[in-house]
Design brief:
This protein has 284 residues and is an alpha/beta fold. It contains 11 helices and 9 strands.
Length: 284
């Protein structure tokens, strides 16, 4: 189940309606349900509310029909009448302004967005979820203190796993050690997807604009030591700015950190995939 803001497009870029929240059953964003901000902020138990919606009874066969991606093990499908995984994408706040970011111009939250984000997170507690994902929109550690406080409040009865999709710039040794302590104390698995998009500092600077490549490599290494390689994945989105490194990325992160790399393509540059598909498939 994914919670995010309803969006449209303006001048080819996504634009969000912060007063309309979209709830979607799986990664294909279907079926979906819309609820107003003022209604959702009043819901104390988010999971119980979702169970009241006509999303869980939607036939799985309908979801996967014509969509090969849904046969992928990473597809966020749920069984009928049971929610296993919830992706919370209700914060767009980010410390970077990446090349071709889907959320360009939306790298901040109003106070009401921030309030709703944490309201929803706390409203997920008590339902024995398999996983809560933070977040697939903004930077989950942008609100570092508040996020650490939230994670400290969790128990194994809330979720078995927390996954953070992060650019790694807001973390430091102290916060990584605290995350490790929380994981150990609560018995909750922590996993991370590091959005890197580069193997050199120059390419990183052009692609992950505003970030510190060397700092992120240090944090990546600290996370590997704290949580082990099997709980960390590197993400590389191929763009014009980094396409010359696509043949290097898997070996770089495997040899230096023992990590696997997930490669995807920039949807704003669809011609790029065709252009370098030979290299991509050689490296797959």
């Amino acid at each position: 189940m994914e919670l995010t803001y309803k969006y449209g497009f303006s001048s080819g870029k996504k634009c969000y309606l912060e007063d309309v929240i979209q709830l979607s059953r799986c990664c294909l964003l279907e079926p979906e349900w819309h609820i107003g901000y003022n209604d959702l902020i009043c819901k104390q138990d988010i999971v119980e509310y979702i169970h009241e919606l006509p999303l869980l009874s939607f036939p799985r066969e309908t979801l996967i029909s014509g969509h090969p991606i849904c046969n992928n093990s990473k597809c966020m499908l749920v069984d009928n009448n049971k929610i296993h995984t919830i992706i919370v994408g209700l914060s767009l706040a980010c410390n970077l302004k990446c090349y071709n970011c889907w959320y360009d111009g939306c790298h901040y939250d109003s106070q009401k967005k921030k309030d709703l984000y944490f309201h929803v997170l706390y409203g997920l507690k008590g339902h024995n979820l398999n996983k809560i994902v933070l977040t697939n929109k903004g930077e989950p550690f942008f609100y570092l203190k508040e996020t650490l406080n939230y994670l400290s409040s969790l128990s194994i009865n809330d979720t078995k796993e927390i996954e953070a999709v992060t650019n790694g710039n807001c973390l430091n040794k102290e916060s990584i050690n605290l995350l490790k302590s929380i994981s150990k104390e609560k018995g909750i698995k922590f996993s991370f997807v590091f959005s890197m998009d580069a193997v050199t500092e120059d390419t990183y600077r052009k692609t992950r604009i505003g970030g510190d490549f060397n700092k992120v490599l240090t944090n990546l290494s600290l996370c590997v030591d704290a949580f082990s390689p099997e709980n960390i994945l590197v993400s590389f989105t191929c763009k014009r700015t980094n396409k010359n490194e696509i043949s290097l990325v898997r070996s770089f992160y495997e040899q230096n950190f023992g990590l696997n790399t997930q490669i995807s393509f920039d949807s704003y540059e669809p011609e790029l995939q065709q252009e370098i598909k030979d290299i991509y498939f050689i490296e797959s």
